[in-house]
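Chapter summary example.
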Amino acid sequence: MSSRGAAFRASFNASAYQRGEKLGLTEEEAAFYDALGTNDSAVQALGDENLCFIAQELTRAIRENVTIDWTEREAVRARLRVMVKRILRKYGYPPDKQEAATRTVLEQAEVLCAEWAE
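The structure predicted for these 118 residues follows.
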């Protein structure tokens, strides 16, 4: 396991895993759910159900659109950034928090993609 993967596992504690199971999310979806849930105003505005939908759609879209070297190719990163922003807008994620959420989601995607590659 890579050091990034080990860090992900260490940061993804048992309570987060249990919360993901309780919400009906896979481990990857729960990771994106938690990334989006760091913004309290988004949690209040959207609620758990919509955050779950966003997390599921993000997981599916990122899995379908990443390439092996996506973290090193700016064109691919830009395409993923646009895709994440569209998904956030689609579900009404607070506009003033979208940029930070996009960064957090892409950081989480880097960690997950390292896991998927193993």
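To summarize the output: The two ends are 7 Å apart (CA to CA).
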